[in-house]
Write a structure and sequence with these properties.
The structure is a single chain. By secondary structure, the chain is α+β, with helices and mostly antiparallel strands. About 10% of the residues lie in helices and about 15% in strands. It has a two-stranded antiparallel ribbon. A hairpin with a 2-residue loop joins strand 1 and strand 2. The radius of gyration is 19 Å and the shape is elongated.
Length: about 70
């Protein structure tokens, strides 16, 4: 576990090892989600990064609307 300190301006610095692992860069936007006393930072990615993500996916065998109760 890596610990960081909240500055007097309420800012956090993300350690380089984590930035490199997640491919984060300066100016990138992050979503903050709270779950009880936990804060999650979720990198927001441009929609263009998802182009071709499902290329070659086989839609056969998926449930159809007629299969619903």
């Amino acid at each position: 576990m890596i610990a960081v300190t909240l500055s007097s301006k309420y800012q956090l610095a993300i350690p380089k090892a984590i930035r490199d692992e997640l491919g984060l860069h300066a100016g990138q936007k992050l979503a903050l989600v709270t779950k009880g006393s936990v804060i999650e930072l979720i990198p927001l990615r441009p929609i263009e990064e998802f182009r071709g993500l499902l290329k070659g996916a086989n839609p056969e065998g998926y449930r159809d609307r007629g299969d619903r109760y």
